[in-house]
Amino acid sequence: MSNHHEALVKSQFSGQAAAYLQSNVHAQGADLRRLAEWLSDDAQAHLLDVGCGAGHASFTAAPLVAEVTAYDLSEGMLAVVEQEAKNRQLMNITCSQGPAEVLPFADNSFDIVISRYSAHHWHDIQAALMEIRRVLKPGGRFIMMDIASPGKPMLDIWLQTIEMLRDPSHIRNYSQGEWLAMVNGRGMMIDKLVGDTLHLEFSSWVARMKTPENIVGAIRYLQDKVSDEVRTHFAIADDGSFVSDTIMFQAR
């Protein structure tokens, strides 16, 4: 992984950890309820949360599994996870720091690997998926949740552009088709897939990343100039709030 990108991700997120803990977008959602359903028979499982952020997926999983390892590049995020796990008396969460592309764990060490709202920051997604496959036990599962690209070029370029303006550490939101190809290419098969949408309130969306005022203006300018197709697909409101596609899948 490039040291420059790693430093960028750390600088973007370490100071914002508390904002992510409090963020409604991250703290709740149909995907977390679905995650709890998908983990309902896994009381003995050792689970790894890659790119755990402020820990919401780890907190959802912890009461349902034996052990959770919360893993993130940002020390600031991990400090928030450790403190909040204590506050919630979730004693089976351990924190570990590093990039998704180099997991410091032995082969076949986890029954389940999960990741939520993180994969779009991974510098080398193929390397990260190879590592996830390596640390999973035979027959283990990978559960992934993220913003998804609509796939269509015009819609895709608009989404990637505003994401990159808001957060320079953004790499890419992948489409359902791209995820299927990448996961299959790593020898895993998707057996559950849910497409959904996520409403993003504009002012809190840019505030979470401390996006500079001139860049916020650029995003608003792009929103004003888009075609009707883009405006309709993303349901862009007068205040800049919009709706993004999401993807959640389980691969074995």
From TrEMBL:
Residues 48-144 form the Methyltransferase type domain. GO terms for biological process: methylation. SUPFAM superfamilies: S-adenosyl-L-methionine-dependent methyltransferases. Coiled coil: none annotated. Pfam families: Methyltransf_11. InterPro entries: Methyltransf_11, Methyltransf_Superfamily, SAM-dependent_MTases_sf. Keywords: Methyltransferase, Transferase. One of its GO terms (molecular function) is methyltransferase activity. PANTHER family: METHYLTRANSFERASE, N6-ADENOSINE-METHYLTRANSFERASE TMT1A. This is Class I SAM-dependent methyltransferase.
